[in-house]
Amino acid sequence: MKPINSKIKEQKTNSSGEFERTAVPQKKLKSWSNFLGVYAGEHAAGTEFLIGPLFLTAGVSAFDLIIGLLLGNFLAVLSWRFLTAEIAVKYRLTLYYQLEKICGKKLVIGYNLANGILFCFLAGSMITVSATAVGIPFNMPMPKLTDSMPNGPTWIAIVLFIGIVISIIAAKGYNTVAKAANYMSPVIVTGFILCGIVALKQLNVTSFSDFWNIWGEGTKPFPGQIKYTFWHVVIWSWFANAAMHIGMSDLSVFRFAKKASAGWTTAAGMYIGHFMAWVAAALLYAVYLKSPEAIAILNQGEAPPVAPGPLAYNAIGVFGILVVVLAGWTTANPTIYRAGLAFQAIFPKLSTSKVTFLAGLVATIAGIFPAFAMKLLSFVALYGFILAPIGAIIVFEHFFAKRFGLVKNYAEIKTLNFNKSVLFAWACSFGIFYFLSIQFNIFLSFLTLPTWLFCGILYLIFSYYFQKQKF
């Protein structure tokens, strides 16, 4: 029987209805349709208007893009279904509370802080995307690929307005985030489809070969970009959301699922968003690249800007502005929600709604600086590389702890604030492979999986060593 004080503390913790420090009860579980809307909305999103064109700037070929995206996104769905969702429905805990049981309170604070900040930066790039649409009626200058600072007061004011609205929605909790995604995702998906159709007409595409020849055998990368091959596309698209699937961040989402099979709903996000939407956005950019303005910029040895708002507006008018704005919202909402949960684990006395709103403000400030959006391919690779190995700790403990005679949730069982096995495993794996990336100029996403596997193996080895010393 729990002490009265413990019960009171637990009731206070769950007063928000988000179950930050307890398992989600059976009566609060949700059907697969709730997750379908969340993932379709989150991944058919504003950032897709950036990522599709950025593939073109990397000089990718038709085969590498189309087949590479089909394969890479399938691997991502498998990761969500058989790792994230499987573990989420087993324990029904947030990533942050589950890590606390394994790592100890002090160690997990550093992870939560890094996780929350990186998610805020990612959400900030989505706010940037929406701002490029809202700024059209104000004739606002659009950020360039090389821009890192805001280009004027109008830009700052628009970003602040959008960010505050998104923060308010995210602060209302998972139910509100899910409802917003379900309402908006059909509009966004329709917008992407229309953009793709209009772009095909503008490009005079009348056959599959015409469509294929848009990318053809590929080109040289634009100034400041690197060349993408088939494996660049496969690996990058697989690990674009590495922090969320193999990094286990979406434990916080799938803990509400009735069954692990809800993990298959991520396919809606991967193939509507990370396939159809990326291709549609790339087509919009292909249209722009034929314009006199873009040709002149290329002739000057610079990369033409990638501004989602104008690209969509030129294709489908005012509806394009609406689609880009909503697309930014539906992606930023759950990202800020995740960041809020990370910060709430650091400041448990504050309500989830308050820390989520604060996370939204951090994301809004980040959105003022277009560098996060304009360098999105590189930033996504980096944040996945940093966060994903921690997910290996949870995965390897879940599947292999019993086999190796290890104690699960060791920090909780032994009342440790600092589990050395976790820190040593992450630091060694991150340090070694990041050094290899810098030293030999290796594409960072290529090293995400080796880093993840190495971290999991090291965790088992260190745990075996330190746990045997204690017994």
UniProtKB/TrEMBL annotation:
Any one GO molecular function term: cytosine transmembrane transporter activity
Region (Disordered): 1-22
GO CC terms: plasma membrane
Keyword set, alphabetical order: Membrane, Transmembrane, Transmembrane helix
Source taxon at top rank: Bacteria
Transmembrane domains' residue ranges: 36-56, 62-83, 116-140, 152-171, 183-203, 228-247, 268-288, 311-334, 355-374, 380-401, 422-443, 449-466
Protein's recorded name: Purine-cytosine permease
Source taxonomy: Bacteria, Pseudomonadati, Bacteroidota, Flavobacteriia, Flavobacteriales
